[in-house]
Amino acid sequence: MLGKLSGWDDTIVALATPNGVGAIGVIRLSGPKTIAIVNQLFPSKDLSKQSSHTIHVGFLKDGDKVLDEVVVSLFKNPKSYTGEDVIEISCHGSPFIQEQVINTIVKHGARLAKPGEFTQRAFLKGKLDLTQAEAVADLIASNTEASQKTALHNIRGGFSTVLKELREQLITFSALIELELDFSQEDVEFADRTKFYELIHRSQKVTTDLLQSFQLGNVIKNGVSVAIVGKPNAGKSTLLNTLLNENRAIVSEIAGTTRDTIEEVININGILFRLIDTAGIRKSIDAIEVIGVEKSMEKMQQADLVLYLFDVNTESKAELETALLQVKQQNKSYLLIGNKVDVLGEEEAQQKFYGDGVFFIAAKSNKHIDVLKERLVDKVVQGTIQTESTIVTNARHYTALQEVEKSLNDIKAGLDNQLPGDLLALDIRRCLHFLGEITGEITNEDRLDYIFSKFCIGK
User: Fold this and answer.
1) Could you give the angle at which helices 130-141 and 445-453 cross, rounded to 10 degrees?
2) Looking at the structure, do residues 144 and 66 belong to the same domain, yes or no?
3) Where is average pLDDT lowest: 18-27, 340-349, 398-407?
4) Binding residues for (6S)-5-formyl-5,6,7,8-tetrahydrofolate
5) Domain with 104 in it: what CATH number?
6) Is the pLDDT of residue 268 over 90?
7) Residue 364 has pLDDT above 60, yes or no
8) Per residue in 118-145, is it b (16+ CB within 10 Å) or e — as a string?
9) Is the same domain home to 195 and 328?
10) Binding residue positions for GTP
11) 38 and 92: one domain?
């Protein structure tokens, strides 16, 4: 399959830096005609005679017309990102100049690259496997230290190494079982069933750990949606402002001030929390406030985590238990936050709500807010983030790993029931298939096009 896909013989070009005005823009070419095309436009030097990984300064011309003074970075195959001849032209950051340069390059024999096509060529040339290629997109999209480290770990082959070791061991046993089939009349076993049991057990442990890491991986990659809910005047908007360290929401003593949801993002210890300040939940005859309450309930249903905030001075223990029952009905992870303990007093609040698992703060005076942030992180990651370990962040990988887990369970059941080698071999092949789908050793053109279409153009 990869042989068919890798038969590309054209040269592509794209702007590798973001569109818009800037100091410089970088235009990238890759393909067999790269050097020949740029040589026609760059009279300063014959690039075909220059060493790879060198930089050259000169004027870029279309005939007698000077397009720009540029810096040309030369990377000759196979020691380039794509494995092909690659040139990056650093020109001035005028969109007009960039467009002129790209149009001229296209006129001389290149075509515009599709989204992710440079990385797709790197994959097809064997410079990256599919998990590493997808990690490139994750790195570009990373907006926290945790997501950056996780993507870098996968680009360096952390995830790939785990899968390849597992796949190679399964292939070895598969080959031995296939060999047994050739000698079925002699009733011999080449594959040591005891060692095979040990391999399946280890494989199940690795697969289970990877599947369990997806919850954390999803948090690192996509962040956590947090709905701040409670009655009017519980201090929800004050808490939002305090967490953000800015006056984002209107704060008033008048009940029902917040009529619509307000959403903001905060980075806490490398995790993005999308905080949603909702309208106070209460019965109302105000039509606009009623809509706000309905939106609050909707946001609570959609959130990954619910912060139920209440005023320790006005809320009774019975009212809290009723509200808690409503939150539990949503089947969501939650934190109970008792606010305004600077008025009632923290000891009195603890005695009043003893045994309810309440964490107490005073949002207005910033009391215990740092501890609340720690509680938020602990609630979603359940421990320290180990970004140097392998963490699954990709839904495609997670789905394939679920199939790997099913296949391993079938193999173990087959061993337990002493199934013949030909039936065991079928389950092993199925397991190998899904492992190969993750790394790209087994794939098809439509799937690749879909995966790389989500990349930015120029990458």
Assistant:
1) 20
2) no
3) 340-349
4) 28, 88, 127, 459
5) 3.30.1360.120
6) no
7) yes
8) bbbbbbbbebbbbbbbbbbbbbeebebe
9) no
10) 233-238, 252-258, 277-280
11) yes
Picking from 85, 89, 87, the residue whose alpha carbon sits closest to that of residue 97 is 89
Let me know whether 211 and 114 are in one domain: no
Residues making up the annotated binding site for K(+) are 233, 252, 254, 257
C-beta separation of 222 from 398 below 8 A: no
Look at residue 169 and give its three-state secondary structure.
Answer: helix
**Residue 204 and residue 405 in contact, taking contact as beta carbons nearer than 8 Å:** yes
Report the distance separating Cα 258 and Cα 251, nearest Å: 8
The 12-15 sheet, strands edge to edge: 54-62, 65-75, 86-93, 22-30, 12-15, 111-112
- Please report, in range form, the residues annotated as the binding site for Mg(2+): 237, 258
Structure tokens at 161: 């190494």
Which alpha helices (H) appear in 313-394, and where do they start and end?
A: 317-329, 341-344, 346-352, 369-381
Asked if residue 159 belongs to a domain, the reply is yes
Burial of 236 (0-12, 13-18, 19+ CB in 10 A): buried
**What is the per-residue pLDDT across 28-77, written as a single tens digit (0 to 9) for each?**
999 999 999 999 999 999 999 999 999 999 999 999 999 999 999 999 99
CB atoms under 10 Å from CB of 186, counted, come to 7
pLDDT tops 90 at residue 424: no
Please write the tens of the pLDDT for every residue from 276-331. Answer: 877 544 444 444 434 444 555 666 677 788 888 888 888 888 888 887 887 777 77
Residue where the block lists tokens 């938020």: 376
Clarify whether residues 230 and 361 are in a common domain. yes
Q: How confident is the model at residue 7 (pLDDT cuts 50, 70, 90)?
A: very low
Q: What is the model's pLDDT at position 297?
A: 61
Q: 49 or 384: which carries more pLDDT confidence?
A: 49
Mean pLDDT of the chain: 81
Q: Residue 305 and residue 328: Cα distance in Å, rounded?
A: 11
Domain that holds residue 200: 140-218+394-440
Q: Which residues are annotated as a binding site?
A: 28, 88, 127, 233-238, 252-258, 277-280, 459
